[in-house]
């Protein structure tokens, strides 16, 4: 009856890759001592009565390796953007120059580097958990098909397919974490 069971491994892979994409986004927001426009992505500004990303109220540039500038389009928002950056927890002290906000990126000390590697580890663990949840969904579909009459050989085949995909994605998370931690600890 269930010989035509076909697990949608493409869907499982897409969902696992979504967890990886989210991890890359979280890693990009971690400050490593080098300037990056993406480090401002999580910061929201109260503009015109709604919370708006910084890149939608001004132009974000990286003119030099240790400097980020934001050219705020509306003069009335300069103070709000500055306040949002100060309260973001990035540890950056904005400097105003008219409608341009300059963010000098200070050197990271050893203690702060260690803290950031721990944060990176937490982000990676969240990604691993998300990947394992997708794996569990796939295994549940296989168990349901087994209850509907799928052969044991087919069950073992699909379970190994899901496990191989999971192992591959977990390795990718571990590799990304190792790269990010090396980048953070680099002086």
Automatic annotation (TrEMBL):
Q: Which biological process, per GO, is one annotated for this protein?
A: cytoplasmic translational termination
GO MF assignments: ribosomal large subunit binding
In terms of InterPro entries, this protein maps to:
Ribosome_recyc_fac (IPR002661), Ribosome_recyc_fac_dom (IPR023584), RRF_sf (IPR036191)
Which segments constitute the Ribosome recycling factor domain? 23-185
Report the superkingdom from the record.
Answer: Bacteria
GO terms for cellular component: cytosol
Key words of the record: Cytoplasm, Protein biosynthesis
The keyword Protein biosynthesis is annotated on this UniProt entry: yes
Asked if the keyword Membrane belongs to this entry, the reply reads no
Which Gene3D superfamilies did the record assign? 3.30.1360.40, Ribosome-recycling factor
Q: Where in the cell is it found?
A: Cytoplasm
Q: What does this protein do?
A: Responsible for the release of ribosomes from messenger RNA at the termination of protein biosynthesis. May increase the efficiency of translation by recycling ribosomes from one round of translation to another.
Q: Which family does the record claim for this protein?
A: Belongs to the RRF family.
Its name, as the record gives it, is Ribosome-recycling factor
User: Which organism is this entry from?
Assistant: Ruegeria marisrubri
Q: In the record, what lineage is assigned to the organism producing the protein?
A: Bacteria, Pseudomonadati, Pseudomonadota, Alphaproteobacteria, Rhodobacterales
């Amino acid at each position: 009856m269930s010989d035509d069971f076909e697990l949608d491994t493409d869907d499982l892979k897409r969902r696992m890759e979504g967890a990886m994409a989210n991890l890359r986004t979280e890693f990009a927001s971690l400050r490593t001592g080098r300037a990056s426009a993406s480090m401002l992505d999580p910061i929201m500004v109260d503009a015109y009565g709604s919370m708006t990303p910084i890149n939608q109220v001004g132009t974000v540039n990286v003119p030099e390796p240790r400097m980020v500038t934001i050219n705020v389009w509306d003069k009335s928002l300069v103070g709000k953007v500055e306040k949002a950056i100060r309260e973001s927890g990035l540890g950056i002290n904005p400097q105003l120059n008219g409608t341009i906000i300059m963010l000098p990126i200070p050197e990271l000390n050893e203690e702060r580097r260690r803290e950031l590697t721990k944060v990176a580890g937490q982000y990676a663990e969240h990604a691993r958990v998300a990947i394992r949840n997708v794996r569990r969904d796939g295994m549940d579909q296989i168990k349901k098909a087994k209850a509907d009459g799928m052969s044991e050989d087919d069950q073992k085949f699909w379970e190994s397919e899901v496990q191989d995909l999971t192992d591959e994605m977990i390795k990718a998370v571990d590799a990304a974490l190792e790269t990010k931690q090396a980048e953070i600890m680099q002086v």
